[in-house]
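Technical annex, item 7. During the second reporting period the consortium partners agreed on a shared format for inverse folding records so that results from different sites could be compared directly. Each record opens with the tokenized structure and is followed by the designed sequence. A conforming record, contributed by the partner at site C, is shown below for reference.
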């Protein structure tokens, strides 16, 4: 580094130190929390709960995901929860419709057991609608329930 570059660097570092000292002594910022806020988890969330083929029983990983999300949102105002049951194209459409409904109900009951308010729930069922693409390929990972949560910080 040339002597001229070193002098410029030292001058800029000194100016930065004065600015920072000025902020500190101005009384505007007393601690880090005055400048940085902790992000809230009380925002819109989306998560999926997957099921075994032909099943509406919640697996241990599914129950863990429900508990984790419920814990994250425990101190939030849960305004609305959409639970959408889906099914793969395996089996008849009527059977898949019923299976989708049982899946959505299982997730809703698990969230309710975690303390979420029952009036906030909206259950929708798609069955196997959309499980096969226009060219006849099966959509992967359709054996699930989608959960969309409208949450906000409590006032």
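Designed sequence (site C submission):
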């Amino acid at each position: 580094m040339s002597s001229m570059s070193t002098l410029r660097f030292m001058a800029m570092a000194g100016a930065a130190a004065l600015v920072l000292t000025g902020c500190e002594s101005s009384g505007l910022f007393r601690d880090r929390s005055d400048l940085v806020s902790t992000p809230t988890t009380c925002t819109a969330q989306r998560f999926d709960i997957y099921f075994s083929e032909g099943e509406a029983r919640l697996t241990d990983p599914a129950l863990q995901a429900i508990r984790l999300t419920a814990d994250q949102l425990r101190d939030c105002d849960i305004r609305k929860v959409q639970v959408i049951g889906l099914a793969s194209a395996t089996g008849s459409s009527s059977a898949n419709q019923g299976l989708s409904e049982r899946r959505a109900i299982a997730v809703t009951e698990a969230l309710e057991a975690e303390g979420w308010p029952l009036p906030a729930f909206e259950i929708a069922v798609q069955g196997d609608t959309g499980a096969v693409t226009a060219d006849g390929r099966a959509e992967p990972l359709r054996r699930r329930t989608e959960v969309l949560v409208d949450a906000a910080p409590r006032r």
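Confidence is low (pLDDT under 50) at residues 15-24. The helical segments are 3-26, 60-72, 93-113. All partners now use this format for quarterly exchanges.
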